[in-house]
Amino acid sequence: MSALAPTPAWQGLQLQGMTEAWLEPVALLERQAYTHPWSHGNFSDSLRAGYHAWVLVEGQELIGYLVIMLSPGEAHLLNITIAPPRQGQGLGLHLLQQGVTWARLQGAQTLWLEVRVSNARARSIYERYGFKTTGLRRNYYPLAAFKREDAIVMSLPLQAGQSL
Ligand SMILES: CC(C)(COP(=O)(O)OP(=O)(O)OC[C@H]1O[C@@H](n2cnc3c(N)ncnc32)[C@H](O)[C@@H]1OP(=O)(O)O)[C@@H](O)C(=O)NCCC(=O)NCCS
Question: How far, in Å, from the CA of 83 to the mean position of ligand 1?
Answer without folding.
Answer: 11
